[in-house]
């Protein structure tokens, strides 16, 4: 089980996670003292430089994993078509993470409301098989059983998230991937310990690897919800009390 947040570079996390006076260049090492994984949303918008990727790798301990969001050029512009060269360009810098490269999250656009299993399968066939892949659908039509069967056949997970009114009918692949985007507004609002109790119970019974990311970064809600869930799972995160004291 790995718990983390979507990103770490938030000025409003000063004091809460990052001590006063700690240089921003040292925020990732501090984050990695508490969490064993982070979700990189920046890779959705642009390719990181080799220098940036090398720094991420060097600033985190052995066993740390970076979950990387797939390029929007491939998912939103190309809509999974003719992606060979685009995939090569996307993975070239990320391969420098070595064993710290975790799952890659492919988020499809919300306006793509008709499922296309043929195009999805071609994309799945083009993906590197030595990397775990996750698909976050933003339209209910993609929760169709033939789509889920495709993901399962290729070992890809379906992202379980709360931006749609219902969850996927069941998980796929050999691992689970959960994203919590916020309660009161996107990226805001705490879930609280009571809401996390059901999540913890269900995760304990899953029998699979699981990645859980909180994207409700405003006011540090993501940090506090992650701490709550870790305690409910019986695996409290390091430095939890320090974070709570500053909340």
UniProtKB/TrEMBL annotation:
Signal peptide: none annotated. It comes from the Bacteria. It holds the Pfam family DUF72. PANTHER family: DUF72 DOMAIN-CONTAINING PROTEIN, UNCHARACTERIZED PROTEIN YECE. This is DUF72 domain-containing protein. It comes from Vulgatibacter incomptus. The lineage of its organism: Bacteria, Pseudomonadati, Myxococcota, Myxococcia, Myxococcales.
């Amino acid at each position: 089980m790995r718990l983390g947040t979507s990103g770490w570079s938030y000025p409003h996390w000063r004091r809460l996670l990052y001590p006063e006076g700690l240089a921003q260049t040292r925020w990732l090492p501090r984050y990695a003292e508490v969490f064993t994984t982070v979700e990189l949303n920046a890779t959705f918008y642009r390719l990181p430089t080799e220098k940036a990727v090398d720094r991420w790798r060097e600033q985190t301990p052995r066993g740390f994993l970076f979950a990387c969001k797939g390029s929007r050029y491939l998912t939103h512009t190309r809509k999974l078509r003719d992606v060979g060269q685009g995939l090569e360009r996307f993975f070239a810098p990320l391969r420098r993470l070595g064993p710290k490269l975790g799952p890659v999250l492919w988020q499809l656009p919300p306006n793509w409301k008709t499922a296309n299993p043929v195009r999805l399968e071609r994309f799945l066939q083009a993906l590197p098989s030595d990397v775990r892949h996750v698909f976050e659908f933003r339209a209910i039509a993609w929760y169709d059983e033939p789509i889920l069967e495709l993901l399962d056949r290729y070992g890809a997970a379906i992202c379980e998230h709360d931006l749609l009114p219902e969850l996927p009918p069941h998980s796929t692949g050999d691992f689970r991937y959960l994203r919590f985007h916020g309660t009161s507004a996107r990226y805001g609002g705490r879930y609280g310990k009571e809401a996390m109790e059901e999540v913890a119970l269900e995760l304990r019974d899953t029998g699979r690897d699981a990645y859980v990311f909180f994207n409700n970064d405003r006011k540090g809600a993501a940090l506090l919800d992650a701490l709550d869930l870790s305690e409910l799972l019986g695996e409290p995160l390091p430095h939890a009390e320090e974070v709570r004291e500053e909340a």
